[in-house]
Amino acid sequence: MDYGGCEYPVPCGKDKYISKNELLLHLKTYNIYYEGQNLQLRHREEEGELIVEGLLNISWGLRRPIRLQMQDDNQRIRPPPSSSSWHSGCNLGAHGSVLKPSTLPDIQVTDAEAVPNREAPRSGAAPKSQAEETPQLMRTRSDVGVRHRGSARTPSEQRRIRRHRFSINGHFYNHKTSVFTPAYGSITNVRINSTMTTPQVLKLLLNKFKIENSAEEFALYIVHTSGEKQKLRGSDYPLIARILQGPCEQVSKVFLMEKDQVEEVTYDVAQYIKFEMPILRSFIQKLEEEEDREVKKLMRKYSILRLMIEQRLEEISEGPTAM
């Protein structure tokens, strides 16, 4: 992979630029860190513009549940043509109620007992390689109108399945309310390029998991282990921001968070976050003492200036009378 070339500025935000060579040096370090992994990035030039593309890891940092679409286009739940789990030709619901065929759920599913991140290839299509994106927000099969075939399970196994069947990789799906609660800090990824702005990346991520919430509700943040939180603006390019921050996610991560739930934390403030309260109180006491010293110093300074002005005024007022 060629990391050389002519020098020209590359935009990395509104009125913010970085030289091409400097960006390529960061990119080289990034790819060395992820050598042999699918998180390595590729770059090319189109019409004199440098374009970097690849997978970007994004951590879920949501405090409120998100809404999922109930209908997808790929895989649908359909009743088997003949099965002992359908009694007398009737469709039985989870509580034994009779369902009409038109009321069967129409959603994309992933078997709860299947291995995560593995999909059955469609007919005539080659199976996907493991280097592709690994969506973490997976769905589980609804228990409405469908019952699993197989040998009878013990009561303890049935209780365990009822407790855990809607949990895949830490994400919980409720088929009745179409609500997902992603586990805080769990990671997904999305394939983007360096020309995509923050709103475009947000929309791509929401469309990937068919999330109904508007992209306007969310924002991307770069969160450091020190506690610093930097919000990516609408004009920023998340992939370039990730490259400039460095590849190590133990130092900083890109988080998806609610706009109204998170406040930015500057580097200076982050230095004090992890201190214990007694230490912070001692800092405040020192600052108050320093403030008092500065106030007294200013008062002495202006008292001297006031005295000098008053003396000068007296000299001026006495001058005409002496003549």
UniProtKB/TrEMBL annotation:
This is Ras association domain family member 2. InterPro entries: RA_dom (IPR000159), RASSF1-6 (IPR033614), RASSF2_RA (IPR033618), SARAH_dom (IPR011524), Ubiquitin-like_domsf (IPR029071). Signal peptide: none annotated. Residues 173-261 form the Ras-associating domain. One of its GO terms (molecular function) is protein kinase activity. GO terms for biological process: bone remodeling; canonical NF-kappaB signal transduction; epidermal growth factor receptor signaling pathway; homeostasis of number of cells; negative regulation of non-canonical NF-kappaB signal transduction; ossification; positive regulation of apoptotic process; positive regulation of JNK cascade. Residues 72-91, 116-161 are annotated as: Disordered. It comes from Strigops habroptila. It comes from the Eukaryota. Residues 269-316 form the SARAH domain. Pfam families: Nore1-SARAH (PF16517), RA (PF00788). Gene3D superfamilies: Phosphatidylinositol 3-kinase Catalytic Subunit, Chain A, domain 1. GO terms for cellular component: cytosol; Golgi apparatus; kinetochore; nucleoplasm; plasma membrane; protein-containing complex.
